[in-house]
Each structure stands twice: as structure tokens, then as C-alpha cells.
Amino acid sequence: MSEAPGTAGSEAPSQGSPLAVPSRRLFVSRVVAGAAAAAAVGTVGYGTYGVLNGPGVKRVTVPLARLPRAAHGFRIAVVSDIHLGPVLGRGFAQKVVDTINSTQPDLIAVVGDLVDGSVKDLGPAAAPLAQLKARHGAYFVTGNHEYFSGAEQWVAEVRRLGLIPLENARTELPHFDLAGVNDVAGEDEGQGPDYARALGDRDRSRACVLLAHQPVQIHDAVDHGVDLQLSGHTHGGQLWPGNLVAGAANPTLAGLERYGDTQLYVSRGAGAWGPPTRVGAPSDITVIELASRQA
Length: 295
Fold this sequence. Notes:
Layout: H1 20-52, E1 56-64, E2 75-79, H2 90-102, E3 107-111, H3 119-126, E4 138-141, H4 146-149, H5 151-160, E5 164-165, E6 169-172, E7 177-180, H6 195-199, E8 208-211, H7 218-223, E9 228-231, H8 242-249, E10 255-259, E11 262-266, E12 284-292
Parallel strand pairs: 1-12, 2-3, 3-4, 4-5, 7-8, 8-9, 9-11
Antiparallel strand pairs: 2-12, 6-7, 10-11
């Protein structure tokens, strides 16, 4: 009896045959793809947990040449980019407030992008801000997102909650000037930054700290003899490829840098915009401790 083709007369591919190689390659590629997917999911999950768990505290000492000895050690809690919204709501705001208060600052600076929505929708979420405590008060300047959400209404709301808005304005604290300018996004509404109004007639023998949401505002701060600008806006990049975009659009992505006689500190921010996750740019509240060179 003759054998049917491909049955008894045929043999399975040997271990070293060409048919076995693609099978091994396919197996390895699937393992690598699975590991990469698991790593990506784990990274995003960890980044999301980090945002929802609330910001950590970062401490930075900044010497100022014109700061008198009496103000040595003055602590400013800087918080930016809280981005209250549907995901980061009242509970998140409470975590931010509790963290700030735990540092026992002398002054609190909220440097823009507090919200992503209207006072009508997010007023209850922002309510914990009324609990902020600092010996010299809590101050607020607008960010670009306030102008997407009703800036005038939010300025009135934060004032009602006990914060002091600095709308192109300056206050003379006992040992240095504190100024604030509106965000550049306000220019479309005729409410942009006005440095002459905030800084033009000040006594330049006194140290000056400026609150300005975007780091790009540093060049005007230099022109007006500011000692230190406190900003946010960049989120430190938040996650790839945002770090590339933010790095290209801003003079400083995060941290402390010097521009002539002016120093710029950029916070990575407390919250997140878009996906509530951060990768390689953890959220923070920064306590700036001013140091006098005369001390």
C-alpha cells in the first residue's frame, strides 16, 4: 500500500531547521512587547498614584543680596498649577492646603492655574483654600487657565476665601516688596501683565519678589530690577513628550536659575493637566527660604 503524501513519509522540522527560527523570534518579540506594555502600564499607574496622593514638599534656599538680616530665614510656600477640576476636586485641594500649612510658612504664594472650570462648577472644590495659614498672608496671581475659566470671577472668589490677589500690584512687607503680575494670557482680554504699574515706582534699594505664572516673564522682571521671580506653568514637563515641548517654550523647565541679577524659581506644580499622571516630574509644593547675605 502506498503512503499518503505528507504523512508517514514526512518528518517534523528539526530544531535547527528554518521553520523553527521564526517561531523562536515570534516568541521573543511577544515576550518583549508584553514586558514593555507592563512597564508602561506600571509607570503610568505609579505616576497617577503620585498625582492623586498629593504633592510632596521641596525646600530651596535662595540668597538675596538686598534682603536685610532681619528677614533671613523668611519662608515662602510656593504652589502652582493645582488644576482643580472633575478629577482633582475638593479632596485634592484639602491635601494641598494641609501640606502647605504643615510647613508653617511666613507667606503663601499661589502662582496661577488654580482651576480648570468656572466658579459655579468648582467653587466648592476650592473652598479648602480658606484654611490657608501664614503670618504674612496668602497671595494669588492668575495663570493662563484662569482666563479660560473666568478670571475676574476667580479673582473675586479667591479674595472671598481670604487670599490676596495681586493684579499688577505690589505690597510692601516689613523687609522686602512682594509684587504680582497677571498672566500673559490676559492680554487678549485687556488684562495682561503691567510691570510698570506693579514695579515702576518702587524703592530699588529694597529686595523684591515677583509672582508671575509663566517663566517667560523673567525678561521683564530683569528689566525692572526684581531679585526673585516665582513661577509655575511648565509642570516640569509632566510626562513625555510634554517635557520636550515645555523645555523648548520656557527659559527654565523647573528649579532655580539666574538671569543677570535676577533669580527665577519654577515650581513643577501640585496637580496635573490633561491625564492626571506625571512621569519623571513629580508634583511639589516648594518652601523657598530667603537668605540674607548680611547674616
